[in-house]
């Protein structure tokens, strides 16, 4: 709201400078009276900051307020932080500082919904965005997700169960057995029958020699 009013006020001053009315000198004095032109400089700074933070990506089309998906995300974000805080208090201070089993167990559902919603918003933003920063959500949402992920993984040492465990194991096993199948099939296809050499019998050779000698005698 403050930013919209700032744009409207600056726009009215800029339009007054271009008009040949009584307010022309007053508007020109506001914009260019000082050497630094502080009004113009501040206006450019606010515009660049607004665009760099991708604020428009989390607002409605008319920029009158947060979009429904952004409000849903921020609501889940607040619920996740509340869950973290509540379970830390329930767990007590007597346990080891690295033991956060209650947080991981009781806040898993809320964190999973938050993480899934964030991934969904990212995919939707990449598909529908056309601006230079369309691949990013607004800075509020990205910072909120980064904070939650750091708390979940680094501080509490929690992890989400991988839903693709079975397909990953199946594909890995198939790849590991590929060399065995290749070498086995290569061995079976390349195997040739050995030639068996039949040597003449010694007795038969001697008999032939005797017949030849009798014939010529």
Automatic annotation (TrEMBL):
Keyword annotations of the record: Membrane, Transmembrane, Transmembrane helix
GO CC annotation terms, alphabetical: cytosol
Name used for this protein in its record: OSTM1 protein
TM segment ranges: 166-188
